Here is the input.
Amino acid sequence: MKISLKDIENMTQWSKLELNQEEKLEFTDKFNKILQKLDIIEELDTNHVELNGDKPLHRNTLRDDEVQPSLTMDLVLKNAPDTCEGMFSVPSILD
Amino acid sequence: MESYKLTVHEVSALINKRELSIEELLRKVIQRIDSTESRLDSFITLNIDEALQQAETLDGLIAKGATLPNLAGIPLGVQDNICTFGIRTTCASKMLDNFIPPYNSSVIEKLRQSHSIILGKLNMDEFGMGYSTQNSAFKFTKNPWDLHKVAGGAAGGGAAAVAADQIFYAIGSDMSGCLRQPAAFCGVVGFKPTYGLVSRFGLVACAPSLEQIGCITKDVSDCAYVLEEMVFYDKKDSTSMSKGNSTYTGNLVEDVRELRIGIPKEIFDESWDPDVRTYINNAIETFKKLGAQIVDITLPHFKYASAAHFIISSCESSSNLARYDGVKYGKRAQNVENLEELYCKTRSQGFGQEVKARIMLGNLFLSNEYYDSHYKKALKIRKLLKDDFRKAFEKCNVVLTPTSPILAFDLGHETDLPIGMSESQRYSLLANMAGIPAISIPCGLSQEGLPIGLQLMADALNEGTLIKAAYTFERNTDYHIKKPMKLEVVE
Here is the structure.
């Protein structure tokens, strides 16, 4: 598979990134080289492989749904770039 | 010998016998950092003031007759993607340049309870994406054996710091050999435990199904001591298991007579450095002489492992790094008009090029067009690899490969190939794909004086077998006691 500049633009949008034209061209070239390397997996037939048939080494364990001590609001907000009355502050979400 | 050059078990014995105070030890280590750090760049953040206060407190406890745990008072470094309460944790990214965690990761909480002294946070590739520590947003770490060579990665800071005696051991994460490959490049021991054996709560997640917290140490005995402190069941990590054996030091026994070592026929190819070939063959001969049996095994899907690892790690990274949006913590772009612009500008300014590339490719592989042909297929290849190892472990107890088929390369060496697709991690990433434990130990020095690493992998939860095999090899060779003398000459 080969990707185009248009694909790069889609990927940028999905990833919430901004790239200039030079970066877009650079990534197109880099990604096509990587995809070429990944072509090796095409030669392997995996249609017979069941992903759910594996016996796990251990099962995920979830704790009981009980209220437990958590971080204080002050600690949580300490790293926030901007706060307002004990909440995270962000730019307008509506135009 | 200067106290900073000793191992964990050696200084621990001196502290327990009251022949060395913790403050005295710490001040020697700080002097060592002062005289070497400008040439190595191992650390992102140092934590000296708190360390000195802690040393004073611990010496006070000892003076009152308290008996302290083995790791008490022994300075360590922590890779900068493991959360440390009150100590900046950046993941070597501009995105988290100012992030000070409001909590400790579980493994740090445990080490704090053992009175370990955190001396600083170690340099790494940004969010663990890289294999030479050249993708750090802050600095390149140099190899103590040759300051013009890379230290490996992603945990290059930890390996360089342990090899240069700046710390006694390092804690870090291993996604593709990120502890073992730098350990091999720097001539120290790197260990990745079984998936789920060490809690990942508080590890800044990148590729959670592949990552495992482990350690870098000066020798195999230290590895067993550190592992004993790190292994415990943690209800905060849903993948944590309660099956660990907490007496790994009991495996420090010199005996490989029952050991069957499997050599996968697929690993031998022209990519190997000639010196790596020589010393790996020597290591196999050493094991034979010590009574181990060598058996041929096969890993038929080895050739697809790097590609599958790359796809899975990219997909998981793209998802996990979606949390960096400039809202709750970390970098926030300025002069933005709306929330969408805030996300895009923050992420574009905060992430380095390699991280951006991985996020974009991960999103591509998870898109409708590529999902089956790439992501799902990669998961199936991982399953086939696990089956390969299951069959291999019916014939052998451990699998032997070089940690890296190449030696530490020149700083500034550019490559288009990202993590997992580098030659240097082709063998180490197998253990991450299979979820099994693996160790890298020094097994030689090349003609140009660069360390060579031997990797041993065992079936899940067989850490003890690895420690016993590696310890026996170490006791019958002297590579682990060699030091990077070039660093001393400049000093």
In short: The mean pLDDT of chain A is 90.
